[in-house]
Design goal:
The chain has 7 helices and 12 strands. With 247 residues, the chain is α/β, with parallel strands linked by helices. The protein folds into 2 domains: 65 residues, Hypothetical PUA domain-like, domain 1 (Ribosomal Protein L25, Chain P, Beta Barrel); 169 residues, 3-Layer(aba) Sandwich (Alpha/beta knot), CATH 3.40.1280.10. The strands form 2 sheets. Strands 6, 7, 8, 9, 10, 11 and 12 form a 7-stranded parallel beta sheet that branches. A 5-stranded mixed beta sheet has the order 1-3-4-5-2. The two termini are 24 Å apart. 34% of the residues are buried.
Length: 247
Amino acid sequence: MPRFYCPQPLAAGAIVDLPDAVAHHLFVVRMQPGDTLTLFDGRGGQYRASLLDSGKKRASARVEEHQALEVELPYAITLAQGLPEGAKMDWIIEKAVELGVAAIQPLAAQRSVVRLSGERAEKRHSHWQGVIVAASEQCGRNRLAVLAPVADYRRWLGTIPPAAAAQNNAPCILLSPRATQPLAGWAQANGAQDLTLLVGPEGGFTQEEEDAALTAGALALSMGPRVLRTETAALAAMAMLAGVWGE
């Protein structure tokens, strides 16, 4: 059954105008009045709905019963991702959403090739939000991952809770090829919990940036002896955590 995100609050019995992009999609696939679809508004669960009318630029539907379906992870992962070039960031966001990421924090690091500010940053943020919506529609999630504005890496480090690493219960994990403690071993020893994965851009974080993260309270962990690309590291880490902690 086709499923779509609607930004307006939904309620059983309501008649809603569907977003323009959804209306266009329904027109292209030739859905007809009376056809059934699934809608969700990001507040949890989803709604069965019936299409009332469909045109090239406009469509409406009658909202029917609420279905309390959730497929979220039992722990919240925030991905703090050093900005790679554009297409790679799209891929990372899409796949992280499929793997259950709760929030995404793009970071402008020293080796980030892409530099975003002002109107360009707003356009990229809007584009990435669209990637989140599309990935959520596809994978069955009824809650959207939170997308933060692009932040300067050094300034963002100031938001890490202090002394986390000393407690061996780090809410911020720096994935580093220089680390010696494996992520899988840490996950097995500490159990499922909310955390932040900190991943560098192409070329990784500089030594100074890694040192700053450790000083701020991050815990450096390894993904193994091979150096992973930036578009691989976070996704492999999330899959590994799911394998160790389950869903």
